[in-house]
């Protein structure tokens, strides 16, 4: 049965003619046959009693459906999901050739786009499980980029490397890797902080496209029953965007700023509104398993030449955690590999983290 999310408002709603679960004490808590709420539950009981307690409430006939409190997704990336919807879907591709074909078709359907872009390729599900190369996408003449399903690697063609001026002489930045062939030439795969080299030259999307994709995400959240989302690692522009559309939001956003994109400087202005709270900060401490960039204590069994990537050294991470914590932010960390988790736990201990800080 499809789900519909109804955001709490200042106008009271009265639900009746269905199964109403409050979940306040247990998953089996059932209130029947009516309930009235605005921002909080106002009354429960018979339809007559609830109607009398909430005069003027708009009645919602459930038609036998079940009503539950709104669901909250505690780890989402709203603007990343919106961006994904503006790109070709590569998640079902079985190899590099299929990805190139999907991207070429997307490019033909979007002739005015300077870059051909896709999202969701996963080479670990392909035969052989190896990284694709720029040559696989060189059938596309325009610069082309495909984001890995993990979000921690990007695959580009030769035209994109030229546009970003990434050559054999380009050094991998701290916290990222330009994958190279035996001769030291970039293969077209860049991971984690090296992805910034490509991001810097990709033209920004049109405002109308951003608005449409953002609205599509809100509708998808509502269809899944979500009335709240923890938006992890928001960029400065994301928060400005939310603030400018505060009256159009259909769910509550608990926003965690991406610490690195704010140059490790905790902003004083919060950008908060009735449905937007900006109380957290997130540190990306390593990559992902599927891109062999999650930081491990031992080499990968299927790629023994690497243990992954630690984005920060311990002193950098400690300084950043202290700075954001002292500014009143709830700190969270992306740490996938065991080495990254060890580093984060050690840093939290050194920073004097207490349970009341509610670090994640």
Describe the structure.
By secondary structure, the protein is α/β, with parallel strands linked by helices. 26% of the residues lie in helices and 25% in strands. The protein has 10 helices and 18 strands. It has helices at residues 47-53, 78-84, 96-109, 134-137, 158-163, 196-199, 207-223, 236-244, 314-326, 338-350; strands at 13-16, 19-21, 30-31, 34-37, 41-45, 58-61, 66-67, 71-76, 88-89, 116-121, 144-148, 153-156, 176-180, 186-192, 226-234, 252-258, 276-284, 330-334. The strands form 4 sheets. It has a 6-stranded mixed beta sheet. A 5-stranded parallel beta sheet has the order 8-15-16-17-18. It has a 4-stranded mixed beta sheet with strand order 5-4-1-6, covered by helices on one side. It is globular and about 80 Å long.
Topology:
Layout: E1 13-16, E2 19-21, E3 30-31, E4 34-37, E5 41-45, H1 47-53, E6 58-61, E7 66-67, E8 71-76, H2 78-84, E9 88-89, H3 96-109, E10 116-121, H4 134-137, E11 144-148, E12 153-156, H5 158-163, E13 176-180, E14 186-192, H6 196-199, H7 207-223, E15 226-234, H8 236-244, E16 252-258, E17 276-284, H9 314-326, E18 330-334, H10 338-350
Parallel strand pairs: 1-6, 2-7, 8-15, 9-10, 10-11, 15-16, 16-17, 17-18
Antiparallel strand pairs: 1-4, 2-3, 4-5, 11-12, 12-14, 13-14
Helix pairs in contact: 2-7, 9-10
